[in-house]
Amino acid sequence: MVECINGCGGMAPTHYEGVEIDVCGTCSGVWLDFGELTEIVETRDASWSANVIEKTLASLGGKGVPAEERERELTCRVCSLALPASNYQTNSGVIVNACPDGHGVWLDSGELETLQIYMERWQDIAARDSGQYQDLLRQIEADYAEKEKQSLREGPAYFDFINIFINRLINLME
Ligand SMILES: [Zn+2]
Ligand SMILES: [Zn+2]
């Protein structure tokens, strides 16, 4: 059995949005291997009430990483490197701990759902206003192809096309 990196004990494999993820029965934290977060964000089986979505989005935002998050000592379960805390998409307000070598990401209880709600909102905006963003999309496509050639070591989210698109869209709107 896989140990929870939060130090609780064993984690149970759980099917979630078509992906087998590891969930801790004690702290409800989740470990996602490389690529699993992207798959989950792209699959939209789970749904939330308008009330939950509104509350979640209202609770988000803010740049940077709070001190108590920076001080946590979590290590990658694959390579044992420290997992630095980062603000997902720079300013989502969701603090994630990702392996610098791209093995995976640690999410505390509730953070996976929060990320999904956050990303789905931007997917909806992107789909609704896609005509308006054709130039941006083309530009990112070109940058993306170039970056993929240069390096594969900057972590899964960084190279995920839809994430880059959403990130730029957010910057554009702020
Ligand atoms: Zn745990
Ligand atoms: Zn690692």
UniProtKB/TrEMBL annotation:
<dbReference type="InterPro" id="IPR027392">
    <property type="entry name" value="TF_Znf"/>
</dbReference>
<dbReference type="Pfam" id="PF13453">
    <property type="entry name" value="Zn_ribbon_TFIIB"/>
</dbReference>
<protein>
    <recommendedName>
        <fullName>Transcription factor zinc-finger domain-containing protein</fullName>
    </recommendedName>
</protein>
<feature type="domain" description="Transcription factor zinc-finger">
    <location>
        <begin position="11"/>
        <end position="42"/>
    </location>
</feature>
